[in-house]
Every structure is written in C-alpha cells, then in structure tokens.
Design a protein that fits this description.
The complex is a heterodimer of chains A (215) and B (100). Chain A has 215 residues and is α/β, with parallel strands linked by helices. Chain A has two domains: 31 residues, no CATH class; 147 residues, Nitrile hydratase alpha /Thiocyanate hydrolase gamma (Nitrile Hydratase, Chain A). Chain A is globular, with a radius of gyration of 22 Å. Chain A starts with 22 loop residues before the first helix and ends in a 13-residue tail after the last helix. Chain B has a single domain, classed as Nitrile hydratase, beta subunit (Cyclin A, domain 1), CATH 1.10.472. Classes of the chains: A alpha/beta (215), B mainly alpha (100). At the A-B interface, helix 1, helix 2, helix 7 and helix 8 of A face helix 2, helix 3, helix 5 and helix 6 of B.
Chain lengths: 215, 100
C-alpha cells in the first residue's frame, strides 16, 4: 500500500481486526515466501496449482460414472485401473502420486469410502473433500458402524446387501461407482452425469432421479 | 493396567473405530489462505520436499491438544513449518522475522 498521510478521525469499521490476516494466514505467507526466496518452489507453481484445484469438482467424477454406466468396455477398464482409465479416457491428470481404485456398487454390495487417519480422498476426480469427511465423527465411526453412519445420511442398506468400507491411504484412493437408477434407459450420458453427486461417489447416498428429471 | 495404555496405542490421528458424535453434514468455502495452503502442500509434494505421509505424520506430531484445537489448515501450516525446521530447510528465526 502507498504511504500516504492518513490523518482523520473516522473509524475504519470495515478494516478492523476481522479483515486483518490472522496468525496462520501470515504463517502460510511467510513459509511460502521463504521457500520462493530460496528458489525451492516457484511463485507460479502455487498459482497454477490453485487453478488445478479449482478445476477439480465432483462434475468430473460424475462424467466418469456416467460413461461407465453407458460403456461396458470403459467400465471394465475403469474397474481394472481407475487412474489409467481416467487419464486415457478423459485426460484427467493425477497431479499427485496416488492410485485410484473404483468400487462398483451392485445389488449385493454397497461400498463406502473413508480416511480414518486424516483426509485422503480422490481429489483429482472429486476436488477437495467436504468438512464432514475430514471431521472426527465420520472418520471414527464409518469403519465400525457403517450402517448407522449411512442411516444418518438417510441411506438404509438392506441386511442382505454387504456394506464394505474402504479406508484410504496416502497412496491409494477410492471412488465409488454407484448403481445406475432404474428407469433411466432413455437418459443421455450427459443427463445421467447430472444425477451423480459428490456424496454418491463417497458412497453415503444412492443416485436418485428427481420427479422433474423423470421421463 | 495403568490406565495410560491408550495414549501409547492410539496416536491423535488414529481414531478409526472410536465412538463419536452424530455426523453433522458440515462444509465451508475455503478461505483464500486455506486454498493457498493446500496448493503449497501439493507443490511441496511435487518437489519431494514434504510428501503426503510426512504431512500426516507432521500433524500427528503436533500432539493431541493442537490436533484438537487447531483447524484443518492451521494444523497443516504448523506441521509444514516444523518439518521444514527439522529438515534444516528453514530456521525458526527466519520464519519469526518473516512473520513480523
């Protein structure tokens, strides 16, 4: 900011403490600037990576799911090697060193993903995880009482369907391939993708068709 | 049994299987500094300066009290600072001066 005389007595209500960078905000800036000064990282790299992060949303995962529903050969490739199939079919770059295992829900098996130790998540195809995924209740309980956890999301899994919980790691990430809803035979791939939400690919809810979308 | 075994067998991050509250479906838009912090983590990983496991371990090393009281990205940036000190990439003095 330019150094200009600023001698009047009105209070700057909008530029109070709340707008001043906080302790951790300043720490982030300091660490980043020191690393840039030492030429260990480039300023451009941070900006570019923010763009990459912004480009990753559940809409990307939804496209992958819809393609798997309409194209059995792609579905097979996706289940065999999730990362390679996403890279080859959609040009989705996996900017981290992780593998992607895609878990298919069927009438016999319902899959759920969690990271009990922290917040590992299939970021290249879903973006950043929601806060509840990173919070203690979900991480603690998903592995031992998944049906109770699912019920809190409004999802009741019949007793004769296995619930499988997959605990992510730094190197291995999971994506749920949800079941295609019934009565969607006439949907285009794009219309199918529009039905697929983030939470369906975490495995906490099924894909549903709203009344308006039915045709 | 001395009653302290759980401190040894369960590090602060290791919470899978513990009892916990109902799930509140909370989320928030990241603040700009939180997003920068996430991008910084990715870039540190690309350069093999701090990888994902080192980051997780660095958060663990903050201890239960900090893990419980700092927010997600607050834990990350404090863990990065500590790891960078330990690796002799930054010194606490440099960071203190830069922090102003």
């Amino acid at each position: 900011m330019a150094a200009s005389p600023h001698e009047h007595d009105h209070p700057h209500a909008k530029i109070g403490d709340a707008d001043r960078p906080g302790y951790y905000d300043i720490m982030e800036t300091a660490v980043r600037e020191l690393l840039i000064e030492k030429k260990l990282i480039g300023a451009d790299e941070i900006r570019r990576q923010i763009e990459v992060l912004d480009s990753r949303t559940p809409a990307l995962g939804a496209k992958v799911v819809a393609r798997a529903w309409v194209d059995p050969a792609f579905r097979a490739r996706l289940l065999a090697n999730g990362r390679r199939a996403c890279e080859e079919e959609f040009g989705i770059s996996f900017y981290d060193d992780t593998q992607l295992i895609v878990l298919e829900n069927t009438d016999r098996v319902h899959n759920l993903i969690v990271c009990t130790l922290c917040s590992c998540y299939p970021r290249p195809v879903l973006g950043l995880p929601p806060d509840w995924y990173k919070a203690r209740p979900y991480r603690a309980r998903a592995v031992t009482e998944p049906r109770a956890v699912l019920a809190e999301f409004g999802t009741i899994i019949p007793d004769d369907v296995d619930v499988r919980v997959h605990d992510s790691t730094a190197m291995v990430r999971y994506l749920v391939l949800p079941r295609r809803p019934e009565a969607t035979e006439n949907f285009t791939e794009e219309e199918l993708a529009a039905l697929v939400t983030r939470d369906t690919m975490i495995g906490v809810v099924p894909v549903t068709v709203s009344k308006e979308a039915k045709k | 049994m001395t009653g302290s075994e759980h401190l040894v067998t369960r590090l602060p991050n290791d919470i899978g299987g513990l009892s916990a509250d109902r799930i509140e479906q909370i989320d928030h838009e990241l603040a700009p500094w939180e997003k920068r912090c996430h991008a910084l983590a990715d870039v540190l990983d690309f350069h093999k300066i701090i990888n994902t496991e080192e980051k997780r371990c660095g958060v663990e090393a903050l201890g239960a009290e900090m893990v419980a009281n700092l927010t997600y990205y607050e834990r990350w940036i404090v863990a990065f600072s500590n790891i960078l000190f330990r690796k002799r990439i930054l010194t606490p003095t440099e960071l203190a001066k830069k922090n102003g």
